[in-house]
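Our preliminary data section would be incomplete without showing what the modeling component actually yields. Below, a chain of 191 amino acids is followed by its predicted structure, encoded as tokens that our downstream tools consume directly.
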Amino acid sequence: MTGKNVANAGGVELAPPKTVQGKILVVRGHQVMLDEDLAELYAVETKALTRAVRRNMDRFPDDFMFQLSKEEFAALRCQSGASNEGRGGRRYAPYAFTEQGVAMLSSVLQSKRAIAVNIEIMRAFVEIRRAAANFKEIAKRIDELERKTDSKLAEHEKHLVAIFKVLKELAAPPPKKKHPIGFAAAQSDEK
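Predicted structure:
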């Protein structure tokens, strides 16, 4: 095993879980995987995957799969450095599959590899959700800490202002003695 996971389902060699997680993108507020990435994981051509999906469109409602818009595809191509249209690259925008769409793919692509890959992909989606929940908990705790700190700072700020005022008074040079106006009579030691 050279840095890869071997699934229990038929000993099919799969990509490491971190590789699968790296292929999950957020598009239109949904966590999705693109058809070309899924095809790579399933070890099939992208056009074979999309052909199988098109034959079973009734299994893929809009919340399971959608095709990227031209703008989304162009932005994705700029980010990933994919080939340009007209130079041998894709001529249509890729399909994006949500977690439910990926699960549905196992019923369309009926092979041991498809089953094993789907299991790993589902685990990756679960792991991302778990990490997101941890981030939300951390953010909540940071907000609580910030609120507590702000209230304590306001309270301590009053005390600090008073302390600095006293320190400035102590650091100021003593006032010069004023000489009285007029003549002061010499006092004699006799009484």
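Strands lie at 5-6, 13-14, 25-27, 30-34, 65-67, 95-98. The domain at 5-127 is CATH 3.10.260 (Mlu1-box Binding Protein; DNA-binding Domain). Preliminary results of this kind motivate Aim 1 of the renewal.
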